[in-house]
Amino acid sequence: MQEPLQLLYSLVNAVQPLPEDDWAAFSSIWKPFQAGRKEIVTSVGEREKYLYFVMEGVQRVYYLDDQNREATIVFTYAPSFGGVVDSLLLEQPSRYYYETLTPSRFLKTPYTELKSLMNERPSIERMVRQGLTQTLSGVMERLVEVQCFSSEDKFRKLLLRSPHILQLVPHKYLANYLGINPTNFSKLVNKVRI
């Protein structure tokens, strides 16, 4: 098995293993894709047509309000799925941007092909549903953090969840993700040890 597909196989197995013939069908729909640093992969108003599997690089999904204020919603990096998932699954225009922060390599699959496989093969549908359930659980946990935790507690939780994140993502984006002033974020970087 080629290296990119091996990474995809490992992630799929961690979510929910597929029977061999379903894995063969699932793995056949992915194609390589690359994007440079600071490239918008999906824009507001576009319908997300692809599910991405991140092999290299760091990306973010962010919201831009009518006053040009950014809110970073999520980061993606290897090995994980990426894209504007609600736009993809609802087949509606995106309310968010999907941007690369570093040069990035992906596998991508058109949602039309993924949806067809999900309809034909129950184990693939179950695997996707299980992955979405895990993602939703993480989103719910993050909402609690955003609404209830102090800045220091949000920072500690982030480091416990993703200890390597400080080396992957520029600090200004992490501060935005946590809803912390960049100066206060710098103080936390110097103060908090995990």
CATH class of the domain at 3-121: Mainly Beta
Distance between the termini: 38 Å
Give the strand content: 15-25%
CATH topology of the domain at 3-121: Jelly Rolls
Helix content: 40-55%
Instruction: State the total count of DSSP E strands.
Output: 8
By CATH, the superfamily of the domain at 3-121 comes out as Jelly Rolls
Mean pLDDT: 94
Biggest sheet overview: 4 strands, antiparallel
Which residues sit in consecutive blocks of at least 5 with pLDDT less than 50?
Answer: none
Rounded to an integer in angstroms, the radius of gyration calculated over CA atoms is 17 Å
Helix segment count?
Answer: 9
Strand order of the largest sheet: 1-8-3-6
Choose one word for the global shape. globular
Overall SS class: alpha+beta
By CATH, the architecture of the domain at 3-121 is named Sandwich
State the order of secondary-structure elements, H for helix, E for strand. Answer: HHEEEEEEHEEHHHHHH
Overview of this protein structure:
- With 194 residues, the protein is an alpha+beta fold.
- It has a domain at 3-121: Jelly Rolls, CATH 2.60.120.
- The chain has nine helices and eight strands.
- It has helices at residues 3-15, 20-27, 85-90, 111-120, 122-148, 151-161, 165-168, 171-178, 182-191; strands spanning 31-35, 40-42, 50-56, 58-64, 70-77, 80-82, 97-100, 104-110.
- Strand 4 and strand 5 form a beta hairpin.
- Helix 4 (111-120) packs across helix 5 and helix 8 crosses helix 9.
- The longest helix is centred in the C-terminal third of the chain and has 27 residues, at 122-148.
